[in-house]
Amino acid sequence: MKPIIRVENLGKQYRIGARQAPYQTLRESITNAVTAPFRWRGTRNAERGTRNSEDSFWALKDVSFDVMPGEVVGIIGRNGAGKSTLLKILSRITEPTEGKASLYGRVGSLLEVGTGFHAELSGRENIRLNGAILGMKRHEIDGKFEEIVEFAEIEKFIDTPVKHFSSGMYLRLAFAVAAHLDPEILVVDEVLAVGDSSFSRKCLGKMDDVAKQGRTVLFVSHTMPAIQNLCHRAIVLSNGCIQFQGEVDRAVKFYLSGSTDTQIDAYDLTIIQNRNGSGDMRLVSFWMEDDLGTRTASVSSGDRCSMVVEYVAQDNLPRRDVFMSIRINALSGAPIALVNTNLMGQDFNTAPAKGCIRFEIPKLPLTAGRYFVDLHLATQCGHSTADFLMSAAAFDVSDGDFFGTGRSGCRLSPVLIDGGWQLDELL
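^ that's the sequence the OP posted. Answer follows.
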């Protein structure tokens, strides 16, 4: 099957630092005109030197990828990574400096609020204008008109010039036009942040519908749950270059941690001086693992993960009735959660002289933020403390799709509780 989008060695260079010529008086202009023939050669040389001295930077460099028909591809990266520049080139808004981008289909773009709208025209006229730009016939536009207006929720203002629209109304109509006028390729930048949360969910639902109809979608967003729920795969951009492209969950982990392969160093607990206990056993390191068993500095809400501690017995002999406790604290120091082997009836009857204790979390119930852990290792089922460390290590949690709805967790509470709602009528 032939790709519907093919990008080959794409690059976009911008020049910075160019100075604007100062305004001249009439006298200066006349003088310059008279002396111009004598200064022509020197001026050309000076201009050439000025151009060479101007700084430039590559917003995109050596970007290559293919997108197959019906694919939904996420473009992720930090601010300034080159995401919007890439979409502008694909939408034929700007020309590349090098390489080429080939698109085989009608493109609907939403790169900023009111893309392609004429401010003096009404909403009705802009719908028809955008449809004509996309190459649609009048009867095709008329067939979609009521659906577009209903989705945008601006029936009362459809005949008002869009220059009088609020940014939210602009966004509603712009997205409705881009998504409903049957483009083979839908290109959407992170403009959904302008709208309210309910409309953003509505837009994500519409993009999901477009994808299920076999259309191709390129979607830029900083909201990782939306990327993971909507996209099949993702491309990670950094400093104008592709750092990773592949399966969406791996791409998101790469973006959050900076790598899919590099092992994250564990916290070295042996350097901590402020600790309590007999010292009979010592905690030596702590780290987090993702669902693949890879060490990571950041996990997402709702992900399967593990907290791992490594210990050693000072006399190199096994121990009996070993107890382990981990308390999770918020950045403020307030305790959030406590897990220990005794409460769960899982104390270790025997433990080797050196080993790792792993606590597996099937679905991390924490919202985005940084958390610290207190670690408590003991024998005699917790009655004899061997090693106790406060704020021994930290880990980061990023927004994730805890409830499986495509929506990130609320920041009003650090803990998420899964369950079900029910409404009963009272007679």
